[in-house]
Design a protein that fits this description.
single chain, mainly alpha
């Protein structure tokens, strides 16, 4: 018979996936709903620059949900207060990207930078917490190399977009070409990060299939 401690630990880890994804889903739905509502009276004023901002913002929402889905599905750990705080901080940064996507390009980049830094911290927290539990060792070995890459990528994006935002604030009246170059880099970087998740997820699935044979 399992003791009381084992029962409590089992309850926590068993409920982790549904609780965490529900929290993230509510936050993502709120930000996406605000983005759609905010666009209702601005569709006629959209130019190429704002359209690129909006497209990148939507990809950020998709990436966030997808990364949380993969992380919470692959790993299990005992959540702490920071695990509740991080999704709300990411949601605030996403709200900023949604709000400024049609209002201010420099502040949009600063919000995207904040999102990337919070994403880096979320990855760091997830992998650090997962290493404390034996049941995650196989997944961590399977993803060896990719866990460091994803943290480096997120942190580098945060630095790059911070520089872009500060430069645009300093220039005050940047050229259209400068805006398009910065936005294209942002779009390609977020798209690349999303595409990176394909081999990340496939490595887990293929390893699982081999273990089941």
């Amino acid at each position: 018979m399992p003791n009381n401690q084992e029962i409590v630990i089992h309850r926590i880890t068993a409920s982790f996936l549904s609780v965490y994804l529900t929290l993230v889903s509510v936050i993502q739905a709120g930000v996406f709903g605000f983005l759609l509502w905010d666009l209702t009276d601005k569709l006629d004023d959209l130019d190429c620059s704002r359209s690129l901002c909006l497209l990148t913002t939507v990809l950020i929402l998709i990436v966030t949900w997808h990364e949380y889905m993969m992380g919470a599905t692959i790993f299990r750990w005992i959540p702490h207060l920071r695990d509740s705080i991080i999704p709300f901080c990411i949601g605030l940064a996403e709200y900023g990207t949604a709000y400024y996507s049609t209002r201010s390009l420099p502040y949009w980049f600063l919000c995207v930078s904040a999102f990337c830094f919070m994403g880096w911290f979320a990855f760091h927290n997830m992998f650090t917490s997962a290493r404390r539990h034996l049941e995650n060792r196989w997944a961590l070995r399977t993803l060896a190399g990719l866990t460091g890459l994803v943290q480096l990528w997120a942190f580098a994006e945060g630095v790059i977009f911070l520089v872009f935002g500060l430069l645009l604030l300093h220039l005050k009246m940047p050229s259209r070409l400068t805006e398009y170059v910065f936005l294209s880099i942002a779009l390609l970087s977020i798209t690349g990060f999303m595409v990176r998740s394909i081999p990340y997820w496939n490595r887990i699935l293929s390893s699982t299939h081999r273990r089941n044979r």
